Amino acid sequence: MATSRKKAILNKVNMLINHRIFLFVLLVCTIIIIVNLLSCAPQYGQVVISRPDEFRRNYEAKEAVILKAITLVFIEKRVGRNVEINQDKHTVDSDYVIQDDWRTKSHAQVTRLNWKECEVVLSVITEKKTKTGWEMRRLLNKEQYDVFFSTIELKIYEEMSRIE
Q: Which of 8, 58, 76, 104 lies 20 to 30 A from 154 at CA?
């Protein structure tokens, strides 16, 4: 009887030790994740740039269709207000959207390359208000611009299907 009681006590002690080890490992993992997230947070919007980033993509469509698609994407993504198409210069521009200490506007230029292709140069300009004025910051990376271009491509196909 004493041996079964000792075994039961040892089992409870082992379970308690295993539970404490599990909690310790969980705590260490949580601390590592939090430190990693905190180390990445300051990079968001901290890169000051002197010129807006420009990314390029080619599409097989007419300028008018591409300009309309870009306008729809700018409105949908809310990267500017009062989005306007300039048919003469083949551009789409927007006014600033201001939110807290940040403001954003966008610009796109469409250039015909040949009889079936056009190049789109896209730039989303983000600025942060500082004591000295507005500073241009890099908020979007290549991956976010790729999402923009994919959405523009989708809108181009939608516009082409409406026209025909």
A: 104
Q: Can you give the pLDDT at residue 134?
A: 92
Q: Using CA atoms, how far apart are residues 144 and 147, in angstroms rounded to an integer?
A: 5
- CA 57, CA 78: separation in Å to the nearest integer? 21
In contact, 80 and 26? CB cutoff 8 Å? no
28 band by pLDDT with thresholds 50, 70 and 90: low
**155 and 71 Cβ atoms separated by less than 8 Å:** no
**Helix, strand, coil content of the chain in percent (nearest 5):** 50, 30, 20
Residue pair 76/69 in contact (Cβ under 8 Å)? The answer is no
For 41-134, where are the alpha helices, taking DSSP H only? 63-77
Q: What is the 3-class SS of 22-58, one letter each residue?
A: HHHHHHHHHHHHHHHHHHHHHHCCCCECCCCCCEEEE
